[in-house]
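TICKET #2291
ISSUE: user wants both folds in one file
ATTACHMENT 1:
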Amino acid sequence: MKSSLLISRRRFLVTSAAATAAFAAPRVLTAQKSEKQLVIGEGEHRYEVLHNWPQLPDKYQWQTTHNVAVDKEGLLYVIHEGRENQKDHPSVFVFDKEGKFVRAFGNQFQGGGHGLEVITEGKEQFLYVTGYQQLKNFAKLTLKGEQVWEKRAPMDSGLYPKEEDTKPAKRWGRDAFMPTNYAFLPDGGFFLADGYGSYRVHRYDKEGNWKSMFGEPGKGDSQFNTPHGIWIDQRPGRDMSVVVADRANKRLQWFTLEGKHIKTLDGFILPANVDTHKDVMLVPDLSARVTLLGKDDKVITHLGEDPQWREQVLKDSMKLRSSRTGEEWVAGKFLHPHDACFDPAGNIYVAEWVHTGRITKLRKVS
């Protein structure tokens, strides 16, 4: 990781009151093997905590875990930011319903792997990936890892400098293209959040052709400060809309499909992404918790919420994040949830932004 990025990350942690830590090998904090079941949540939303759930072969290394997605068969896809100097190492790992390793691919995303979603198109499923850092791209793959297409900055938007789509420079800024996450429409079109770059949301058709954009940097409605996560809100009883996790502004914002602002919901710390299951919305928060919202968008519960633990993580952020043993982590608590998703049964998978990766399964027990 370049020194400029480290400085940016550290400043981000200090100013946002968020922190993270590192996760060791799958033998540490194996809550699923303890004699007593570890359960968090309340009421109808209680979950057994299974830290370090996936089983990775010794020939691979856990790296900085970023995002997770589940296909129709229940396979879990995990993308790592990876390390630019390890081009021979895959960045995408796939696990079955029991957490057993299935396959790995995606060497081309080492050093910048970020977002991913599994989408059904007709009778086939595809994996969509975003890359930031030096990659500055987004791509469509088969579920086995074969590339269908790859694209870079939408130059028709008029936002980006010359060669940002052909020879992008290794830099950050509001004129850089740093895509983070997708939101897919029923017709196959999609929205793409340029969460680390221009702070805009781009709209594409199903072939990946740029159509329009909305948003701009700022703190007001329809403005963003790190629009990191995005999702199509199709929960029952409401019109379809686009919800954006406006991370550094500590809020969610809803928009029409044409990009017109509908409403803003405050009360978050650093919301990183969004997913839905039936009438429940899932919001992983970089500041050590995962939030569930009900159909009225009111908080059901904050999973892993513990202000004292969050303060400890902030105080010892660099020490914990560089740890290789995880001995100071607390079972049932999170450090830095970067993404989370539901599976069809309502279980939750949480990916945390830590140096040696961490994937937790929250198995629904209520």
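ATTACHMENT 2:
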Amino acid sequence: MPCYRCGVRQTDPERGKSPWRRGVVHDQLVLICPGCQESADWTAELERCAKCRSAHLIRRLGQVECLDCGLVREPEAVLGARSSGAADTGLADEVGRALDRLLGRA
């Protein structure tokens, strides 16, 4: 999954805690790379918990959960807020090229 802000892809993680941070935007899990975290406003676009206002949210098992206070909510239906069709196609193309390289296809 690429960085939400700059698009750089995460490389194989080293042992220990990842320097990448997670957040939720439009009820979707996003990653923020260490470089973008240096910006003072890197959390500005992240959703916040309705109970404690923390941006320390994750999405898992179809729910959005606050890692600070534990509030769990169902994601809202955000129709048309974000069109992921082009992004999905780009990712599918990238995966196809990677498989071709791995399998030695021309």
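RESOLUTION: both attachments delivered.
EXTRA DETAIL ON ATTACHMENT 2: Residues 78-83 have pLDDT under 50 and may be disordered.
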